[in-house]
Amino acid sequence: MTEHPRSGYDALELIGELYDAVPAYNARNDVAFYVEESRLAGGETLEIGCGTGRVLLPIARTGMRITGIDESPRMLDRCRLRLEQEPESARACASLRQADMRNFHLGKTFALATIPFRPFQHLLRVDDQTAALHAIHRHLDPGGRLVFDVFNPDMRLLVKDRTAETEDTPETKLPDGRSFRRASRVIEVHPARQVSDVELIYYLTAGASEEVRLVHAFSMRWYWRYEVEHLLARCGFDLVMIYGNFDRSPLNEGSPEMIFVAERH
User: Fold this and answer.
1) How confident is the model over 6-39, as pLDDT tens digits?
2) How many other C-beta atoms lie within 10 A of the C-beta of residue 31?
3) Residue 42's closest CA among 147, 112, 136?
4) Which pLDDT tens digit goes with each residue over 80-96?
5) CB proximity list for 171: less than 8 A, separation 6 or greater
6) Helical axes 126-138 vs 225-234, angle rounded to 10°
7) Three-class DSSP category at 187
8) Is 183 exposed, middle or buried (0-12, 13-18, 19+ CB in 10 A)?
9) Which domains are delineated in the chain?
C-alpha cells in the first residue's frame, strides 16, 4: 500500500472529485434550506467556502445570482468544471473567486452571505473568526443577513476515544472506473482550545492495482452557542434566529446543528 503524506485540501489532487462522490455529502439536507434563504433574501448571495459547488450550483439553477469564494484552487477548479456543464442560464448567475474568508475584497455588497457545511469551524483562533466576520460585514448591504451552520457539540463524543479508523463510506465508484472507500478518525482533542485534529482517509483503487491511502488531515474548532452569539455581536451583527436543524426546528440539547441567522446593523 502506498501512503500519501498527511495534507490539507490542495495537496490531494483528487480532493474535489472524491468530495463530490461521498454519498453522505450528496444526501445532506442543507441544500434546500440555503436555496430558500437565497430566495428570501431577494438579492445576490455571497457563499463563503463554496467548494465544488454543492450548494452554489442549485442556487444558480433557480436564476438567483450568487458569488462563491473559496481558498482552495483545487476545489474551485472542480466547481468551475461542474459549472461549465450547467445550462447557460445557470452559468450566467454564478461567479467564482479564490479568496481567504478572513480578508477578501470583492468591490460589491450582497443581500445575503452564507457559510454552508462548517467552513467557519476551520477558523481556530478568535482573531481569525472576528476577521472573517468583519470581512463579511463589509460585504453585506445594510440589513443584509449572514446564515451559517456549525455542529452542536456533543460532550459524549468529544471525550470518547476515536483514534481508531472507522469506515464512514463503503466502496464507492468514481466516474472514471476507479473506486474508493473512506474511514475517519480523531487523532487528538485539545479541550482548552476547543479543537479536534481530524483525518479523513481515502482508500483508492483501480481494478486489481495497488490500493493508495490518501489522508485529508485538518483541525476543526467547535463552538458553544453563546460564544457564537458574542462573536456576532462583537462584529456588528444582530442575532435573528438559531435553528437546530435544516427543517428550521428550534435548537435544543439533541439538535445536530446550530444554524445562526444574523443581520448586519
Assistant:
1) 346 887 889 999 999 999 999 999 999 999 999 9
2) 19
3) 112
4) 999 999 999 999 999 99
5) 179, 180, 181
6) 50
7) strand
8) middle
9) 2-8+155-221 (no CATH), 14-152+223-264 (3.40.50.150)
